[in-house]
Amino acid sequence: MKKLADRYEVYKCEICGNVVEVIHGGRGQLVCCGQPMKLMEKQREEQGYEKHSPVVEKQKGKILIKIGSIPHPMEEQHFIEMIEAITKDDIVLRKYLNPGEKPIVEFDIPDVDEVREYCSIHGLWSKKL
Ligand SMILES: [Fe+2]
Fold first, then answer.
1. pLDDT (tens digit, 9 = 90+) per residue, 70-94?
2. How far is the CA of 116 from the centre of ligand 1 (A)?
3. Of 11, 24, 78, 129, which has the fewest CB atoms closer than 10 Å, so is most exposed?
4. Which one-letter DSSP state was computed for residue 103?
């Protein structure tokens, strides 16, 4: 039987706001507050003023990630909640952020395959390197 959820997928409950990431996909449907959770599609195309697409600079043994080309707001109701880097070997580095902090992170790992970020209003964004 086909899996309904898969590793790395992010789901949101549109009632209470719970957001979860799948570690192991099973055959069941993810449900919260009595209804199916919504799969957060990875977005890549910018619309409007706010910039979400990660800007990535590779340095010696490091990677610097900024959200985005114009710094994204980091306000109480609208901010980048996390930035993560996934390597080709499935190593995941994740930094959680708070309002008022800068939407920038540096990881000591060079071989990154994908960078993702989650905006509290605009959802999940991804950039394949
Ligand atoms: Fe946003």
1. 999 999 999 999 999 999 999 999 9
2. 13
3. 24
4. S
